[in-house]
Structures are given as structure tokens and as C-alpha cells.
Amino acid sequence: MNIRAVGWSCVYDSGYSFFQQGERGVYLLLLARRTVRIGKDIFPENTLMIFDGSEDIVYSAVEDCLVCDWILFDAEGDSEMADFAEIPYNVPLLHTEWEFISRLISNITTEFYSTNSRRIKMIDLMMKTLLIKASENGFNREIMQSAADPHYSSLIELRERVYRNPQMKWNVDTMAAAVNMSRSYFQHIYRELFGVSCMTDVINGKIEKAKEILSETGCTVSQVAAMCGYDNEEHFMRQFKKIVGVTPTGYRKNK
Question: Hey, which of 182, 219, 225, 241 would disulfide with 236, CB 3.0 to 4.6 Å?
């Protein structure tokens, strides 16, 4: 296999749209580590897709930016990719071992830009490991099927609203009503799609916003708590430390 270009943990502004012209025999492996729009569809963070060059690809950020790992490569011979016939091309996957895949892409990126005399052999071995891992049944087929579910887009949009507006008093009833679902069905399908309960995700959204404010502003901890929808500063501090591992002040000092 021949790598044409590679990137790991790349960050792109929301206004930037990527276009990759389809070319037979040229593959694009994309691991979107934040919510991504591919064509007209929106897919959740940690979506893995391998495009086989049979069609043009357009993808862009849905939130404030897009973070992704990617490899553009071609097969040097027809027999090479035949070994990985089990890979579902052009299909969104939520692979259970996406972190392992991301680390592999990081290592491939390092070797690609190195001057190591054996870099080509190392890259070839790692690429084959990566494709073997991608072809394993480690992806969640229920999530793949849910992309065609009529509720899929509305749930993605709701999640984005939750993360953009952590100051709001989100609860199960208001979230279920926003997508016209019953409380029980909403909780079930939300966990199936995102792998986490809706209220845990609300808390995650608050903490992510708090980390952003702490990193980029001089707001006091009390102000940050209020901006993230906490009525009680101590409750915010306890929850932040439980999830992040350090206090809000400690997190700011380490940045």
C-alpha cells in the first residue's frame, strides 16, 4: 500500500469544507473525532468511514470545528485490498476500538514524516494492522442502521443544542419533547445512538463548556459555574473534579 497523505488529530474551522474527488483504487480512511457532516448526513463523534474511491466525498464540521485522523492511500496491486474484503466501504461505523485505531494513525503519521530507513516497511505493517482492525466485527451495526432512522438527524441536532447551551435546564422531559418522543423511548434510543444516557451527556456538555471557558477566559469559578447552568458553585466543583480529575482551578493552572 502507498500512502499519499496522512494527518492525525487535525483541527479545521467550521467554515472549511473538504472535497475529495473519487478515484478508483484510491482510498480515504477518515476517523472523525467530533460530529461530522458527510454529504447531507450528520454522524456522531468517533465515526469511522473508509471510502473506496467510487464517488466524490464532501465533509465538514458540524460544531465549532472538526477534529479528525485521516489517511489517503492506494493499493499497489489489486490483490492487496482483496485481503480486506470484509471492510464495509462507504458506510459509517462506530468502532468499539476507535482509540486503538487513532493511536495507529498517530504512529503511521510519525513514521510517514520520519527519516527512518525502514519506514516504508513499518508503515506497510501498521497499515495492514489498521485495516485488519477496521474489518473486524468491532463496530456497532445498530448505530450504522440508526443513520437511516427518521429520528437520527433530530437527535444529532438536539445533542448539538445541549452542548451549545449548557446553561439551559435540560431534563429528560424537555429533551424528549424537543424530538417528539415519549420519555422511555427517547431514553432508550439516545443511549443506543450515543452510548451514554441523555442526562450524563448533559453533564458532559456542561463540563466540556467549562473546560473551554477556563482555558480561554479569566472568568472566576463562580462565573464559569453559572455560565454552565450550575446554581451551586460547590456542586460544579465536585462534579468537575469527579469527571476531569482535577479542580477547575487546577485545570486552569495546567493549561
Answer: 225
